[in-house]
Amino acid sequence: MSKIIVAISTPLGKGAISIVRMSGEGCLKIAEKLFSSKSLSYENITPRFLYLGNFHFEDKTKELCLMVYFKAPYSFTGEDLVEFQVHGGTALTQKVLRTLIDNGARMAQPGEFSRRAFENGKISLDEAENIIDEINADSEGELKATLNLADGKIKSKIKTLQNSLTESIAQIEATLDYPEEDFEKSAKDEIFDNLKDVKKQIESFIIDSMNARYIRSGINIAIVGSPNVGKSSLLNALIGEERAIVTDIEGTTRDVLNESVSYKGIKLNFIDTAGIRSSEDKVEKIGIEKSKQTLQNADVVLWVLDGSRKMNDYDKEISKILETQNNVITIINKNDKPRMLENFENEIVISALEENNIESVKEKIYGLVINEDIDYNKTIIINERQIDILKECKSIIDEIYQAKEESMDIIAMKIKQLWNSLGKITGESENEQIIDLIFSKFCLGK
Q1: Looking only at Cα atoms, what is the longest distance across the chain?
Q2: Strand ranges (DSSP E) for 307-442?
Q3: In this structure, what CATH number is given to the domain that contains residue 34?
Q4: Angle between the N-to-C axes of helices 384-402 and 184-208, in degrees from 0 to 180, rounded to the nearest 10
Q5: How many Cβ atoms from other residues are within 10 Å of residue 44's Cβ?
Q6: C-alpha–C-alpha distance, residues 94 and 85, integer Å
Q7: β partners of residue 66
Q8: Which of 60, 99, 194, 328 has its CA 20 to 30 A from that of 244?
Q9: Distance between CA atoms of residues 206 and 386, nearest Å
């Protein structure tokens, strides 16, 4: 199997340019067979310099394009790497790819370029995951968090913690090597003072990442209420588009409708549910059951009431359903009409039709879930695998404290376990299966 890999690194389709990337020892030899330029001498090629020339196909046709060469180890993969920038177009880009394969390269696996970068020490595992998170970021907040980690911040902090643990292990080894010396108690005190600092830093990571789920996935908000209170009008006002059908006919919304909008960098995922009421309509009944299920999974529930009338039996039925939930925001709609409804504690009065007080609803949702404004300058870890490892590390530290009166070799064993667990974040001690899984999430050409 060829060690030279190749793939298209830009999305397929019509566009200004497409990039075809090739990496591995000998890739420049393949380029030499296929690309020519008046300004290019392959014996004296200048790395990182764009050459304008012709890519020659085997059917004697050619494509005017740019080529750049990155000499090992100063490339993304750490190997010799060549990129061709050709005119955008599916057929043309595929033809360049096939020609490179016919001349000795092989098709790269998803994430294989990044995998080689990891194996050649160009990036750590956390940096590779950060690339995935950066590519997949859907909200401004998620992008801010990933960009803040782009310079290897996590790796640096983890290495500092590991170095601290290494010092503790060295202290323990000294007490074991010289048992006649009576300094075990003082060494143990120093080791646990050191461990206290490590624990504090890990707990800080976990606390700062408490909002990680919301940064990544957003806040899920269910809009509930009896028919015709203005749930669909509220959804349209919240997202700034007319996505939900609004009529005077009861039971218009028969299924769950999902729409998202960004607020303070966090996605607000609104779920417009079917009006909850007793119904004999088979389709509407299914929608009502889905509405009840949605309530159980929502981070926030917007209970919409019509302020221009008193509560009816449907409103009272919903009120009973919501009694046990502490994530409910009461929305009194239709403040453009005379009020007939009684007052509620902490209510928000709006007019969905006139888009009156809509921003207050968003602010209330944000404040209910996010305890304080997120400081994106902090090291906010949003990767679930890394957060799980940090929680695992905290548990190991608790075990070490429980073993404080045990022998020094048992404490050393547990500190080494902690060191290895931290190494799972950067890839120093993660198993091959997990590493394979992480890089399989990359797209082709990355």
Answers
A1: 89
A2: 328-333, 348-349
A3: 3.30.1360.120
A4: 150
A5: 6
A6: 13
A7: 52, 85
A8: 328
A9: 10
- The answer to the question of residue 428 being in a domain is yes
Q: In what order do the strands lie in the sheet with 51-56?
A: 35-36, 51-56, 62-70, 81-87, 17-23, 5-8, 106-107
Q: Is 72 helix (H, G, I), strand (E, B) or coil?
A: coil
Of the chain, the end-to-end C-alpha distance in Å amounts to 20
Picking from 214, 236, 271, the residue whose alpha carbon sits closest to that of residue 358 is: 236
The answer to the question of residue 121 being in a domain is no
Beta pairing class for 17-23 and 5-8: antiparallel
How does residue 258 score in pLDDT terms, banded at 50, 70 and 90? confident
133 and 95 within one domain: no
**8 Å CB contact between 356 and 287:** no
Q: Which residues contact 372 (CB under 8 A, 6 or more apart)?
A: none
Question: Is 359 found in the same domain as 429?
Answer: no
In a shared domain, residues 91 and 178:
no
Domain check: are 177 and 286 in the same one? no
Report d(CA 157, CA 146) in Å as an integer.
Answer: 16
> Which pLDDT score is estimated for 15?
83
361 and 390: one domain? no
State the alpha helices, DSSP H only, in 262-349.
Answer: 282-297, 313-321
Read off the pLDDT of residues 231-257 as tens digits, 9 standing for 90 and up.
888 998 998 876 544 444 344 444 457
Global confidence as pTM: 0.70
Is 172 in contact with 409 (CB distance < 8 Å)? Answer: yes
For residues 411 and 176, give the distance between their C-alpha atoms in angstroms, rounded to a whole number.
12
Q: Is 228 left (phi over 0), alpha (psi -120 to 50) or beta?
A: left
CATH number, domain containing residue 391: 1.20.120.430
Helix/strand number for the chain, H first, E second: 15, 13
Q: Would you give the distance in Å from CA 291 to the centre of its chain?
A: 28
Side chain identity at residue 92, one-letter code = L
The pLDDT, as a whole number, for residue 375 is: 74
Say yes or no: 285 and 388 in one domain: no
Q: Looking at the domain assignment, is residue 57 inside a domain? A: yes
Helix 384-402 crosses helix 125-136 at what angle (to 10 degrees)?
A: 140
Q: How far apart are CA 227 and CA 234, in angstroms?
A: 13
Q: Are 351 and 334 in contact (CB under 8 A)?
A: yes
- How many independent structural domains does the chain possess? 3
Residues belonging to the chain: 446
Confidence of residue 137 (pLDDT cuts 50, 70, 90): confident
Residue 36 domain flag: yes
Neighbours of 104 (CB within 10 A): 17
* Parent domain of 154: 127-210+379-440
